Each structure stands twice: as structure tokens, then as C-alpha cells.
């Protein structure tokens, strides 16, 4: 069999007892694709002399870590977010079994191995490709499982904002899964595996797909651009900063959170449509006034480079502020919001073109914080009162999920909650 010959889904490593990673040799950036040996098990066979997997394919993220994967990693080229509701009649027992299955699958897939149950073969030839799978619990999960006493206060529903145009059918959910990878097939493979694992225990409530720039597309790593063309992420909190952990993660002790949320975080997920036809009618200068930063290099309008501190007081020859009072990057700053901060880790989305020619595209805005009230809610309240960007965007769906810390070796995500 050669690479060009079709394979069937029966030719899975799970069935053959051979891992995809073992066959591909992706333990490091120099992992070699197997040739004839692979063919012997009807697997990812490559002709002699095949080139090694690139570092994109070989990149592997550990599953058993302090904070769940998919929060601290760099943006991935492809993403899926999916919310599930527990099936009628399913409760804590079914949820526990499901979290065990999902965790096991996440661990295997992130290591470049096949899932244990009916692997689809979609990712057969690829390495882990920096796959991350992240799990969270929504407000409604706790009543469904009789665990109301364990529900964190921080999961109380988000307030409404005047600019909300929220579709309830695409909001909230008992369970939330975020999948990211630097390969589209690896990401979709994970999505199918997660959905299959849900079995009769849970049903998909909504699902969204996103993307970011592919690794290697730019001459050197740089801040990603969104679909408005802006560099987006410049002022994200950095793990090297002294208050990073305090802002993004629930501490192991000494907070209002239940113990099972130690080392966890809260994810706010908003589908924000961009009104691109209106946006693209603006001149470059007008676009830059809306954000308060230059489009080309992300520098503040007060000058310097992308990382130069924004001078909020600087005025031009007419005495006008160079960074307008309603500029998005001015009013969303922590120092304008009592220190409120969040880690933004979005995907862009494009779900086709409406009959009137309008692109259904924008930002799957995902942000992480130790306390959504002191992060997203505070900043969004401010933006709601007068963000120059608000004319060009529309919040269409919303979710808030409690994302526990990473699973221990041999354990599963949410064990502290479900067995606590
Ligand atoms: C409630 C939180 C936020 C929403 C919603 C939001 C939407 C949104 N933002 C952009 C583009 C940019 N945002 C930028 C900075 C920025 N945005 C937020 C928060 C929300 N954005 C914060 C906290 C910050 C950082 C502020 C700071 O500390 O300086 C920028 C500038 C570059 C950067 O720092 O990332 C851009 C560009 C879009 C397009 C959008 C909705 C579609
Ligand atoms: Fe923003």
C-alpha cells in the first residue's frame, strides 16, 4: 500500500494495537514516517526515504498538567468548540463515566494515538500537531447531576449587555469542550472522537469552528491578526508576569471557589460577528482610531512599536488625544477597569456568506480568568457603555464554563467534583 491508496476505517491502530505515534515516530521533531513496516499493519505507510514529519506535526502537548491544556499554549491553526447537554435521565453516574472516557481519549489523541473506541482514521498520517482538548462545566450541569452545592458562585449567569444579540440555542450548555490543533484533520478527528464518546450520555447542544494563522506562515512568530486585519493579543497577560497566575487561575486554596476548581480557570465564550462590510468601508486612519493602534504593526497611536507602552495623555497639534477616549484598546485596559484582566485566546470563524452577500464571519472570543466578574464582565460593561468598535461587531452567542485544573496521572478531568 502506498500513501496514495485509500485506506478504510477498519485499519485503525486501536484494532491493530499499534499507536499512530509509534508508527510515525513523532516523539521528537525528527520523527520518521515508517515505510514497509507501516504497510504491514495497513497503516500510515510512506515510501522509502519519506521526509520526516515537520515540527508542526510532531508538536505534542501533555495532557496531565497543572492547568488543563488549551489555555496557555499558543494559538492553534484550527479550533472546534462544542457544548453538550446531558441526555434525559443521565446524571452524575453517566457524567462521571463520560468524563473518564473523554479524558482517556484526550490523553491518547494528544499523544498522537488513536482513540480506543471506533477510531475514524481521519488523522492516521499525522502527528499530534499540538492538539489540545479542554473540558468545562456549565451552570446547568450542577442541577442535572445533583451537585448544586459544588457549583461555584463564579458560574452565576453573565449579566445581559445592551449590545447583546444572543441566540440561546447557541449559548451555554451542561458541558463544554474546546479542541485546538495545528492541523485541520487532527482537530476534526478529535471532534468526532469526543462526539462518539458522548454516546447516549450527552447530546451536542451547539458546535462552532474556528481558525488562526498556520504556524510557519509568517517569517517569524508574531501576534496573530483577526479578520479585521488587526494584530490581536498584543497586551495579553504573560505567564512571566508576577500577577499572571492570580489573574488567570483559581488558586489551590484561599479563594471563594470550591476545592475542585483549584488550578482551574473560567472560560467566557462569545461568538462575535464582525460587520465586515461596514468595517471595510472605513479608511485606514478611521479603523486605527476605532482601535487606538496601528493596523500595520499593532503599535499604539501614541507611537513606538507594538510593545511600546500606550501614552494615554498624548495630544496632537490640535490638542486632541491621539488615542481617542472611546478607542477599544484604551478602554479595555486593566488600568481603566480597576485591574480587570483576562487571557484572550480566540479563533476566527467564517460560516459562509448570507443570501445578501454579508459574510457570517468574526471572532470566537474565548477568554480565561480566575474570576469572570473581575475579568470579562467588568471589561464588557465598560465596552458596552461606549466602545468605538461596537458599531462594527455583534455578540451572537455566549457561554461561561468552569474549567477545572488538569487531570492527575491515571485520573480524569473533573474527578474532584464528581467524586468529591
Ligand atoms: C470583554 C472583553 C473584550 C471583548 C469582547 C473584545 C472584543 C474584540 N477585541 C477586538 C480587537 C482588539 N482587542 C484589543 C485589545 C483588548 N481587547 C480586550 C477585551 C475585549 N475585546 C482587552 C482586555 C484588550 C487588551 C487591552 C490592554 O490591556 O491594552 C486589541 C489591541 C491589541 C491587543 O492588545 O490585543 C484589538 C485589535 C475585536 C476585533 C473584538 C471583537 C470582535
Ligand atoms: Fe478586544
TrEMBL record:
Entry's family note: Belongs to the DyP-type peroxidase family.
Identification of the protein by name: Deferrochelatase
Organism: Streptomyces roseirectus
Coiled-coil ranges per UniProt: none
Compartments, record wording: Cell envelope
Main subcellular location of this protein, as a coarse class: other
PROSITE patterns with a match to the protein in the record: DYP_PEROXIDASE (PS51404), TAT (PS51318)
Gene assigned in the entry: efeB
Annotated keywords: Heme, Iron, Lyase, Metal-binding, Oxidoreductase, Peroxidase, Signal
Every Dyp-type peroxidase C-terminal domain range: 223-407
Superkingdom to which the source organism belongs: Bacteria
TM regions (residue ranges): none
KW Transcription (keyword) present: no
Role of this protein: Involved in the recovery of exogenous heme iron. Extracts iron from heme while preserving the protoporphyrin ring intact.
Keyword Heme: yes
Amino acid at each position: 500500500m502506498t500513501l496514495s491508496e485509500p485506506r478504510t476505517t477498519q485499519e485503525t491502530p486501536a484494532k491493530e494495537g499499534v499507536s499512530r505515534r509509534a508508527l510515525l515516530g513523532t516523539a521528537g521533531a525528527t520523527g520518521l514516517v515508517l515505510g514497509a513496516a507501516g504497510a504491514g499493519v495497513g497503516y500510515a505507510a510512506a515510501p522509502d526515504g519519506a521526509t520526516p514529519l515537520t515540527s508542526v506535526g510532531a508538536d505534542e502537548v501533555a495532557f496531565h498538567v497543572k492547568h488543563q491544556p488549551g489555555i496557555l499554549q499558543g494559538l492553534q491553526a484550527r479550533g472546534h468548540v462544542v457544548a453538550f447537554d446531558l441526555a434525559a435521565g443521565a446524571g452524575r453516574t453517566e457524567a462521571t463515566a463520560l468524563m473518564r472516557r473523554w479524558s482517556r481519549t484526550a490523553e491518547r489523541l494528544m499523544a498522537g494515538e488513536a482513540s480506543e473506541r471506533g477510531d475514524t482514521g481521519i488523522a492516521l498520517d499525522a502527528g499530534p500537531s499540538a492538539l489540545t482538548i479542554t473540558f468545562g462545566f456549565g451552570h446547568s450541569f450542577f442541577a442535572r447531576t445533583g451537585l448544586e452545592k459544588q457549583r461555584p458562585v463564579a458560574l452565576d449567569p453573565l449579566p445581559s449587555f445592551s449590545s447583546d444579540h444572543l441566540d440561546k440555542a447557541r449559548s451555554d450548555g451542561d458541558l463544554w469542550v474546546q479542541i485546538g490543533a495545528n492541523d485541520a484533520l487532527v482537530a476534526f478527528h478529535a471532534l468526532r472522537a469526543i462526539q462518539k464518546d458522548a454516546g447516549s450520555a450527552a447530546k451536542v447542544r451547539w458546535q462552532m469552528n474556528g481558525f488562526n494563522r498556520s504556524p510557519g506562515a509568517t517569517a517569524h512568530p508574531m501576534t496573530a491578526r483577526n479578520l479585521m486585519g488587526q494584530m490581536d493579543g498584543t497586551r495579553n497577560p504573560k505567564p512571566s508576569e508576577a500577577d499572571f497566575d492570580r489573574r488567570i487561575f483559581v488558586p489551590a486554596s484561599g479563594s471563594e471557589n470550591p476545592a475542585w476548581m483549584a488550578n482551574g480557570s473560567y472560560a467566557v465564550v462569545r461568538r462575535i460577528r464582525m460587520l465586515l462590510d461596514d468595517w471595510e468601508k472605513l479608511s485606514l486612519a478611521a479603523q486605527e482610531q476605532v482601535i487606538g493602534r496601528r493596523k500595520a504593526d499593532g503599535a499604539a497611536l501614541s507611537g513606538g512599536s507594538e510593545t511600546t507602552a500606550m501614552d494615554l495623555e498624548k495630544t496632537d497639534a490640535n490638542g486632541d488625544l491621539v488615542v481617542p477616549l472611546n478607542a477599544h484598546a484604551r478602554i479595555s485596559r486593566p488600568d481603566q477597569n480597576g485591574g480587570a484582566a483576562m487571557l484572550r485566546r480566540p479563533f476566527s470563524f467564517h460560516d459562509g456568506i448570507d443570501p445578501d452577500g454579508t459574510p457570517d464571519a468574526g471572532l470566537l472570543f474565548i477568554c480565561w480568568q480566575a474570576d469572570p466578574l473581575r475579568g470579562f464582565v467588568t471589561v464588557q460593561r465598560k465596552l458596552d457603555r461606549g466602545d468605538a468598535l461596537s458599531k462594527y461587531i455583534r455578540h451572537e452567542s455566549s457561554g461561561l464554563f468552569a474549567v477545572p485544573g488538569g487531570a492527575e496521572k491515571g485520573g480524569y478531568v473533573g474527578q474532584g467534583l464528581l467524586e468529591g
